[in-house]
Design goal:
binds threonylcarbamoyladenylate; binds magnesium ion; eleven-stranded mixed sheet; five-stranded parallel sheet
Length: 343
């Protein structure tokens, strides 16, 4: 397949490319679009055969449901059985933005989009290019992250091209994503609200609107063998670079000592800014220790850089788990296949 690259810096100025992307999507094609979280591989969410092509392009298991992206509240009623009061209040507080809300779906959502479940995940992104494309296409867009299944999500067009050239009709290039980790996913489909995936909207922010929110055990821990995943995406190996990543909890001094005495093959460290000089191996820093937002924005591209550099063993400094840090920790323990060393 011939993949067009559509550079869109400003949806007003680059309107012809916005229209091209929208036309491809309306015709049942696949277009990679930027969002404020990560790039998404989009298709018409209401067209089951278009959505099937997403799974093929990504190599994604077909029981893993997709997020449906909308650009305004009027698009929602046809998609859902009901949009409960809690969902409405969350939408008012945090949409457009990096928050996905799961509710019971209507019959308009094909089983391909919802992975055969009776619920649907909905998000209104804030990225102006995503919004312009959805608005111009006039259809809700199903879009998982635009990586090959299992790889870290792409936060710039270069990484989309690396994974998806020849597999999609077009890739929109709008530079770097601001948030850098995927949206927060919360379900309101079962009575008590439950956080399924931490992201740019924090647990604290959700609780400010809803009161207490349960945290799904899969957010912080490995699912035990045979356990049913509330969010099917949680059960697959995720965000994993080829390198063997090990998360190491402890002080910088303990970390430096551990790395020095445990080199295995080509060994690197994933550390915080300013720590490089203390480490005896090649160091890749992913933000200041106190700055979870920057860590989130840089993590996925750093994981890909580690592979580009051919690193075999990577020891990673452990982020704080507060605020957006919870999302950073959640992605890193998955990259590490839950291998954590506590010093
Ligand atoms: O920021 C994001 O959310 C990005 C951008 C492109 O919007 N999208 C994204 O999609 O990360 P994806 O498919 O990579 O992750 C969606 C997650 C998966 O873990 C999936 O299992 C879960 O949401 N999910 C989707 N629909 C669900 C449902 N009905 N019930 C439970 N989990 C659901
Ligand atoms: Mg994904």
């Amino acid at each position: 397949m011939n993949t067009q690259i559509l550079p869109i810096e400003d949806p007003g100025k680059d309107e012809s490319y916005v229209r091209r992307a929208a036309e491809i999507l309306r015709a049942g094609g696949l277009v990679i679009i930027p969002t404020e979280t990560v790039y998404g591989l989009a298709a018409n969410a209401l067209d089951g055969s278009a959505v099937r092509r997403i799974y093929e392009a990504k190599g994604r298991p077909s029981d893993n449901p997709l997020i449906v992206h909308v650009s305004n509240m009027e698009m929602i009623p046809p998609l859902v059985e009901d949009f409960p009061d809690g969902a409405r209040r969350l939408a008012e507080a945090y949409w457009p933005g990096p928050l996905t809300i799961i509710v019971r779906k209507s019959g308009r959502i094909p089983p391909e989009t919802s992975g055969g479940l009776d619920t649907v995940a909905i998000r209104m992104p804030s990225h102006p290019v995503a919004r312009a494309i959805i608005e111009t296409a006039g259809i809700p867009l199903a879009a998982p992250s635009a990586n090959l299944s299992g790889k870290p999500s792409p936060t710039n067009a270069r990484r989309c091209i690396e994974d998806m050239m020849g597999r999609v009709d077009a890739i929109v290039d709008s530079g770097n994503c601001q948030v850098g980790v995927e949206s927060t996913v919360i379900t309101l489909a079962e009575g008590k609200p439950r956080l399924l995936r931490p992201g740019g909207i924090t647990l604290e922010q959700l609780e400010a609107v809803l009161g207490q929110v349960e945290v799904d055990p899969a957010v912080l821990h490995k699912l035990s063998a045979g356990a049913k995943a509330s969010s099917p995406g949680m059960k697959y190996k995720h965000y994993a670079p080829k390198a063997h990543v090990i998360l190491v909890e402890g002080s910088l001094q303990q970390f430096a000592e551990y790395v020095k005495t445990h080199q295995q093959g080509k060994t690197a460290a994933l550390c915080f800014d300013g720590e490089e000089a203390f480490l005896s191996v090649r160091a890749f820093s992913y933000g200041k220790k106190e700055d979870a937002a920057t860590q989130a924005a840089r993590l996925f591209d750093k994981l890909r850089e580690l592979d580009d550099a051919g690193e075999e063993t990577v020891y990673a400094r452990c982020p704080d788990k507060e605020g957006v840090g919870l999302a950073v920790y959640n992605r890193l323990i998955r990259a590490a296949g839950f291998e954590v060393i506590k010093l």
